Amino acid sequence: MPENKELKKIKKIYGEDFMHWCRESFPTILEEEGKLYKTLSNLFAENCTSLYEDMLESNCEDYIKNLIYDYVKNETIEKKETDKTPYELLDEAGYNLYECTTQDEILAFRKYYKEDEELCTFRDERLRRCVVFFAVRKDVDKIKREDFQNPQREDEYGTSVLSIQIDKIPPCTLSIKNRYNHTVNNPDATYGNDLDKIIPGLTNSFEKLLIRRGIKLNINNISKFDNELRFYTLCSDGKYYKYNTEINHDYYCPGNIILKNGTNPIKLDNPESQILIDYFIVDLKNKTIKAVDPNIQDSFLDTIGEIESIKMTKDKENGD
Fold first, then answer.
1. How high is the pLDDT of residue 85?
2. Range of weakest confidence among 7-16, 176-185, 210-219
3. What's 219-263 look like in SS3?
């Protein structure tokens, strides 16, 4: 298949190897001109130029592939609107819904989990950063772990107790955590983190409940990579950014980008004369090097006196 205009755009930003991978992985999406490039642009910032190499190194090719397919699917599915509360809808679906406002309330649900399948939620202070709900099947006592010798993420046991958690900090990602926990693949994305797969209208219902608390739900179900792809973080604009280092919740990224508090992407004012290296700004015009955050103490700066000249050279081998 020859390169079309869309593949050339993908190649320009994300590299030739990633372009070839896209051509092999998404032939159906590529049939609709512009859809794949738009999807990638909405998911990954332009500083993700080494995405292909990072994906292979982290062994998460399938994860990225599913992320792209899920995004395309979620864009085409119209979510049902409803006036019912999440409590009412989940009652119709055969669940009792509970919101936890204290750690003790969270720990009350520990009894539903096998000892080596307990959620991390029971061991950390999750309420500092998340809104936490548990949805428990009304017939949960009849669903026994020993009856499920070949666990499947969406089987009756795995979905009999669900923890629905929403980040309080933008982009307010949602996670539906499985009763099997890490016994099954990708347990923090049960039903692909699509509430409407539990019962139609549940996404819209949670969206309305949360917005009254000042939380805008990430309706495209874009989730954080967590441990899947190292040195990538999800920003408030709904895109993943590659970063080099993180200090005090600020992310310092390739492409002269800083993510303040991990959410707000900022580009250097004068990218033609300023270069971000780690957490330093190298100013070619004024011949200065300074830390982005003046509160960062680094002995490197103490070793620099007056700079007579700064020159950036291109690495012929790596193209840097």
1. 97
2. 210-219
3. CCCCCCCCCCCCCEEECCCCCEEECCEEECCEEEECCCEEEECCC
Cis peptide before 171 (omega within 30 of 0): yes
Contact between residue 40 and residue 48 where contact means Cβ atoms under 8 Å apart: no
Q: Is the pLDDT reported for residue 230 higher than 70?
A: yes
Residue 1 has pLDDT above 60, yes or no: no
Strand partners, 240: 44, 234
List beta partners, residue 96.
136
* H or E element in which residue 99 lies: strand 95-100
Is 317 a residue whose pLDDT tops 60?
Answer: no
Q: Give the span between the Cα atoms of 69 and 113, in whole angstroms.
A: 31
Identify the top-confidence range among 101-110, 179-188, 208-217, 252-261: 101-110
215-220 long-range CB contacts below 8 Å, 24 or more apart?
215/131, 215/166, 215/168, 215/172, 216/170, 216/172, 217/166, 217/172, 217/174, 218/171, 218/172, 218/173, 218/174, 219/79, 220/71, 220/74, 220/75
